[in-house]
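Methods — Computational structure assignment.
A single polypeptide chain was analysed. Its primary sequence is given first, followed by the predicted tertiary structure written as structure tokens.
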Amino acid sequence: MITVGIIGAGRIGKVHAESISTKVKNARVKILADPYLSEETKKWAKEMSVEKTTKEYREVIDDPQIDAVLICSSTNTHSPISIEAIQAGKHVFCEKPIDLDIGKIQEVMDALKKNPVKYQVGFNRRFDHNFAAVQAAVKAGKVGDVHVVKITSRDPEPPSMDYVKISGGIFLDMAIHDFDMARFLAGCNATEVYAQGSVLVDPGFSEAEDVDTAVITLKMENGAIVVIDNSRKAVYGYDQRAEVFGSEGMVASANDSASTAVISNAQGVTGEKPLFFFLERYMDAYATEIKCFIDAIENNTDTPLGIEDGLEPVLMGLAAKKSLKEHRPVKISEILEK
């Protein structure tokens, strides 16, 4: 039994606590830490069989019974808490991104070289049944050599402007998942990024020096081209699709919905809208990624997404930001040279 401490009791922290409590049989959550811990959260934690709640995250780091730390706190805390946990000999699951600063991600990498614990980055979409099936088909050679990958990722509604201002922008907050998916489906890293963006949903994005609608083109190491389209507002729900076209065929995934029932009558042909948002769509994926993390600890195997998998999407996001600002394609090597 792996004993876990969770740092951060927001939406994702609660998702992981619930997954471990109900779906991950070889782990338990001993401590849930959050500086803004409420009485309501304390009550909820007890219902999830969490032994202890605290406002001090170091109680997780310092507890000798804790085998693994799940970092679900704000982005600016991910890399420093990662380093503290690694130095304390704890295995670490860190929500994306590890940091928005490449130098700070390198510091985490250096800490792992000195303390070789398990480290996994939280890119949950790889564990979604649809995307996993697409990747499995590509890996099995069903579509031949990969030529074009298309990824659609559109949220049902925009986040609050308070969140947008601290999010790191659409490329490092939202599209970062799609950058990881591009690597997952193409089977290699990107070499060049070209991004275009507009403010079409809410003028507040301009005030935050961000965009709410974007199209990103990636050139991959194997020559494949990836096209990503993002929107902060799709009125019909959470739009999450992918397609891989290759020399021998094509594989594509559709959205999940509450049912596959389609009504055909005189008024038209209608079906269910996509599931509303990420908690509805990806709950099983969240549970699966934690299962894989716990299994890697128990079996002393590699985690499915290591520190390098946390670095590459950030490089792509920074390249996209530079591309949008300078109106030109940006090579990943330019970001690494900084």
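Note: The longest helix spans residues 278-299.
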